[in-house]
Amino acid sequence: MIYTALAVEQKTNERNKKRSKEKDDTNNGSLREIGDEALVWKLSSAKAGHGVQQLRDNNLDTFWQSDGVAPHTITVLFNCKIKIERVDLFTKYQLDESYTPKEIVIYAYTGFYEKQIVSSQTLHEPNGWVQCKLSAHHRQGDENECLKTNRLEICIMSSHQNGRDTHVRQIKIYSPKTDQNVISSSCGATCGNNKKTNSLDLHDFGTINFLQFDSLR
């Protein structure tokens, strides 16, 4: 029994090391994962127990399962415009088969309603991380510039074998690490300026101009 327990523990440790390696191989160190900084993660549909939490729990054995008609969408909303280098999705055709995404299209919003395709891929029985490099939208001017937006829409247009629903095991969103401080300060500055503009200084009510209206005659 002792040897059996040790063998199970050893296999578990080896499996965890393998998973960690799979995660680390998707990032060369120049990027940082910003999915946890999003204000909202919204799914077009989901089976009970297979929603956003399973999509973001760093566990490759869990997954989001849609429950509706394609396209199946994942909408990610940030507090302010932020630079986004790429989106990575983990898929496993060996297990998911007809649930595996086949055609993936990613939109970036350039306005409240206007959106533009910034990445499009057709997959063939993928196993592992799929990297979706994002291009700048037309309003940015420079095509070589990193995409900057506050809203992404990741669309699974179709699945393998004409499957109705889809499985996505994990999603990671990466931003240039060098822009971390710039992004944080710009978002903070924006919020700070809005707060200053919208707030009222109570000391202003003690001025002569205000005191002349302190009573009705």
Automatic annotation (TrEMBL):
One Gene Ontology cellular component annotation held by this UniProt entry: anaphase-promoting complex
Biased composition, class Basic and acidic residues, residue ranges: 11-26
Annotated signal sequence range: none
Gene Ontology BP annotations: anaphase-promoting complex-dependent catabolic process; cell division; protein K11-linked ubiquitination
Chain intervals for the UniProt region annotation (Disordered): 11-30
CDD domains: APC10
Alphabetized UniProt keyword annotations: Cell cycle, Cell division, Mitosis, Ubl conjugation pathway
Domain DOC span(s) in chain numbering: 10-200
Family: Belongs to the APC10 family.
Function: Component of the anaphase promoting complex/cyclosome (APC/C), a cell cycle-regulated E3 ubiquitin-protein ligase complex that controls progression through mitosis and the G1 phase of the cell cycle.
Protein name in UniProt: Anaphase-promoting complex subunit 10
Gene source species: Reticulomyxa filosa
